[in-house]
Design goal:
By secondary structure, this protein is α+β, with helices and mostly antiparallel strands. Helix content is 67%, strand content 15%. The protein has one domain. A hairpin with a 2-residue loop joins strand 1 and strand 2. The longest helix is centred in the last third of the chain and has 25 residues. Keywords: Membrane, Transmembrane, Transmembrane helix.
Length: 105
């Protein structure tokens, strides 16, 4: 089970967000959901996709020389493009999640 999660890239939060965004975008095309507005669900999925893709783009390997070799780790380093993509995706996701909750009430 752990290997499956690693293959699907579900070991990081933005990997999980990517799959939730894909499910939210695809759900209105497969089945009519009576109590949810399909446009809001699709836009929520687009916002989640933008957030997760910006984090995948910003994921970098950082190396530091140490005596006897190099030390390497992964770090999220955002560029201006990925910051804008993440902010726009966050605003879209928050707005349409709010609209989904308003429609449920």
């Amino acid at each position: 089970m752990v290997d499956l999660l690693k293959e699907l890239k579900l070991d990081k939060w933005y990997g999980v967000t990517l799959y939730i965004g894909i499910l939210c975008c695809a759900a209105p095309f497969f089945k009519k959901i009576e109590f949810l507005n399909e446009k809001h669900l699709f836009a929520l999925g687009l916002g989640l996709l933008m957030i997760s893709l910006s984090n995948f783009i910003a994921n970098r390997y950082v190396q530091q020389p140490i005596p006897g070799g190099f030390l390497q780790w992964q770090e999220i380093i955002h560029s201006p493009f990925t910051m804008i993509l993440q902010i726009v995706g966050g605003v879209i996701a928050f707005l349409f999640l709010f609209l989904l909750f308003i429609d449920l009430i």
